[in-house]
Amino acid sequence: MKIPTTTDIPQRYTWCLAGICYSSLAILPSFLSYAESYFNPAFLLENGTSVADLSRFERGNHQPAGVYRVDLWRNDEFIGSQDIVFESTTENTGDKSGGLMPCFNQVLLERIGLNSSAFPELAQQQNNKCINLLKAVPDATINFDFAAMRLNITIPQITLLSSAHGYIPPEEWDEGIPALLLNYNFTGNRGNGNDSYFFSELSGINIGPWRLRNNGSWNYFRGNGYHSKQWNNIGTWVQRAIIPLKSELVMGDGNTGSDIFDGVGFRGVRLYSSDNMYPDSQQGFAPTVRGIARTAAQLTIRQNGFIIYQSYVSPGAFEITDLHPTSSNGDLDSPSTSAMAISRITQFRIQQCRFYNAKGVSNLT
């Protein structure tokens, strides 16, 4: 039997076969481009028993949902290590997130310093309910690095609770340990038949928030046929801090303040404000700086050529309320390191300072 060759096939059929081959090659890449990786779970077990759902591993580096301990960062500021619940999501959360989205509740929102009262929908949420931060807070961003276990959150500064530099939450204040205190001074002189001695002490007891103090002195003299000794109780008082009032309570022997007039001794009760309970930046008066940042930028405030404040602001509105008090006159210059990143700055005008338009600031009042 004769085997047909290409010379035996008519020309028109040859062109038809070639067209079919080229069409097949053209269609083949389209199937390859839409192909997805698939792992048959039957390869794991030979008895045909069903296995866990492995579909989430078909889309790259997806991790199982659960509780992970991560380093929490807010606006490039380290907040602390926190156990956070993560849920699987189909949204685009980045190549390093492992397909996970953090689940926020009211306790976690307070930890990052978000002012929930500014968002009525957040204030009405239950404490244990999962909150989508991206939908609840405009201009907020979340970036989770699963390998480094680092969660970066960017929130407009205006939506955060005001926290001045040097601020420490009252619940983290330490009352100290129970202790007995004794400070004393003893001097004496003896010669030519005369003896003189002097002793002074400041003793106390610390128990919880209470402080008991006693101040006294003892004098002794003998000579020239004269002898005397005397104990003087200068003062005894008990005091404690009233944290909600940022005040100190003193009961017993004390003195009035001497800021304006001379102090006067008294025996009774005194309640006075304590500046030591306030952050350093709030122990005085300073202007408030408000503005809107187009992108993440470093805000620097200068006075007379010296930097008096520097901070990073995230995109959106911001408000600076923790400038350190200054008693010197001068202009406050507020340029930003990112070109035109700060679109508008509004500053509070005080009598001893003048404000003017600065580089990178389009509106300054």
TrEMBL record:
Pfam families according to UniProt: PapC_N, Usher
Keywords attached to this entry: Cell outer membrane, Fimbrium biogenesis, Membrane, Signal, Transmembrane, Transmembrane helix, Transport
Regions crossing the membrane: 12-32
Key word Amino-acid biosynthesis present: no
Membrane topology listed for this record: Multi-pass membrane protein
InterPro entries: Fimb_usher, Fimbrial_membr_usher_CS, PapC_N, PapC_N_sf
Gene Ontology terms for molecular function: fimbrial usher porin activity
GO biological process: pilus assembly
Cellular localisation: Cell outer membrane
One cellular component (GO) term of this entry: cell outer membrane
UniProt keyword Transmembrane, yes or no: yes
Gene3D superfamilies on file: 2.60.40.3110, 3.10.20.410
Top-level taxon of the source organism: Bacteria
SUPFAM superfamilies, per the entry: FimD N-terminal domain-like
Residue ranges of domain PapC N-terminal in the record: 38-187
Entry similarity comment: Belongs to the fimbrial export usher family.
Name by which UniProt lists this protein: Fimbrial outer membrane usher protein
